[in-house]
Amino acid sequence: MWPDDFAERYRKLGHWTGQTLFDLLSTAAERFGDRDAVIDGDARVSYRSLHERASRLAAGLHDFGVRRGDRVVVQLPNTAAYFDVIFALFRLGALPVFALPAHRGAEIGYFCSHTDAVALITTDVYDGFDHRTLASVAGAAKLIVAGDPGSHTALSSLYTSSVSSLPPGPGPSDLAFLQLSGGSTGLPKLIPRTHDDYLYSVRASAEICELTPDSSYLVVLPVAHNFPMSSPGVLGVFHAGGKVVLSTTPDPARVFPLIERERVTIAALVPPLALVWLDAAANLGAGLPSLEVLQVGGAKLLDSVAARVEPVLGCKLQQVFGMAEGLVNYTRLDDGDDIVLHTQGRPISPDDEVLVVDDEDVPVPDGTVGHLLTRGPYTIRGYWRADEHNRTAFTDDGFYRTGDLVRRLDGGYLVVEGRAKDQINRGGEKIAAEEVEDHLLTHPAVHDAAVVSVPDTYLGERSCAFVVVKDGMTAPRLRDIREHLRDRGLATFKIPDRLRVVDGFPVTGVGKTSRRELRALLRELAASKGTA
Ligand code: OOB
């Protein structure tokens, strides 16, 4: 975690206030009592009720055996139960490990074993997948199911009638949860965030985004992702006393009427969804009158798309460039078009330290593209239980190497120009090349594999697997590869969109597979064929 002198400074500056995430809910319940906190379909949950439900569930989870410091993998869709669960765990000081609904056996099994999780809290069936089947990969973690539990424990059975048995909660500098990193190497890294550090980013974000008790915030992205969780996200809304409106689909046909019904004022999207909404609204010939701010982040927004937001939807655009490791940048609501349409914003905090450096870690002048390094009051100093990886992912003086290539402009605004990390950003969903390659290598016909991004007009990027086939084996088809990876329990978004069989890979000066050259090869092929 942070060295003592930094921690002391962040406290002195008033960034770390000594509260926990459960305190955020307790305070909100006191201040906003009967006001709506969460809207899930026809169900409306008040602040008071959310506080009471979370407390009763905390007591029940404690009776079930969940203790302070324990890890609990949480995989829930955008439903009200999610909030009962996370606040119950925050109350106990047990750490949620935030999985996405799209994760399958490979990821969930790894999260459970890597964190020695005591429980996996998931749903029954969602998006055609029976999550109860994940019991087979959960190891020692006991399955708790929201919905029909089958042979497992029903989440609904764990709400006690009294909360008198609750032990003392965690301290503000304790870990609050483990968030997932987009990653670039083998297995997903876990990001340890403390109550103090996360709450600072939440409060500051709520202020930057000008949230008030009248804010109505729509969640269509997976609620456990850092963007809808805290930028300013659901937690920012709870801090401000507004209401969170949940949707399990981003489809305009379902969401536009919900926006109207709940007078949604702010929503967060990834660029491909922004495009879908813009086209739908343009077709309808109507904007979204209640919507004041559309936040777009998670992947680079094209200038041409950015320019359509205000004319078509009739609301302000806010670009958000953040990372679960910490640093979040926003364009401000009073910034001019030059900034809002062409930059990815500036950091939350005056105490976010940002360096833009060349390959030798030497700072480059403003306006020049370089690697973004950062350190600050809500940026982690290391991944969870990953000492070796941390030696290269952070500088000796604690700066996180984001892997992003940026240009810094006057006023500290950043423009994202590319990426140096081996990651594919598939419409905001991050794919670590090496993780998929490791799975590809288990295919009987695959001798070697490399996964790279291909430009895509809708998603920004898709993934392409290059494989070298073993001597004497028949080259697999894309369909075989996809089936193989699905059978291994890999989340669908990580399964390659394209396949190219090659004789060998270009290598870098040090003899590593050059993904850069493979990407260039794809561009050449696309240029010669008019398609990628
Ligand atoms: C958000 O968090 P993660 O952890 O899923 O991904 C972080 C990475 C960044 O390092 C960058 O490569 C990319 O996603 N990214 C963007 C971007 N926002 C994120 N690239 C270009 N333009 C943007 N606006 O994605 C995240 C976390 C909090 C708030 C918003 C996004």
Automatic annotation (TrEMBL):
Keywords: Ligase, Nucleotidyltransferase, Transferase
Gene3D superfamilies the UniProt entry points to: 3.30.300.30, 3.40.50.980, Luciferase, Domain 3
Nucleotidyltransferase recorded as keyword: yes
GO biological process: siderophore biosynthetic process
CDD domains hit by this protein: 23DHB-AMP_lg
The keyword Ligase is assigned to this record: yes
EC number: 2.7.7.58
Pathway(s) per entry: Siderophore biosynthesis
MF terms in GO: 2,3-dihydroxybenzoate--[aryl-carrier protein] ligase; nucleotidyltransferase activity
InterPro entries: AMP-bd_C (IPR025110), AMP-bd_C_sf (IPR045851), AMP-binding_CS (IPR020845), AMP-dep_synth/lig_dom (IPR000873), ATP-dep_AMP-bd_enzyme (IPR050237), DHB_AMP_lig (IPR011963)
Annotated AMP-dependent synthetase/ligase domain residues: 27-384
All residue ranges annotated as the AMP-binding enzyme C-terminal domain in the record: 435-512
Family label: Belongs to the ATP-dependent AMP-binding enzyme family.
Protein name: 2,3-dihydroxybenzoate-AMP ligase
Organism of provenance: Actinoplanes campanulatus
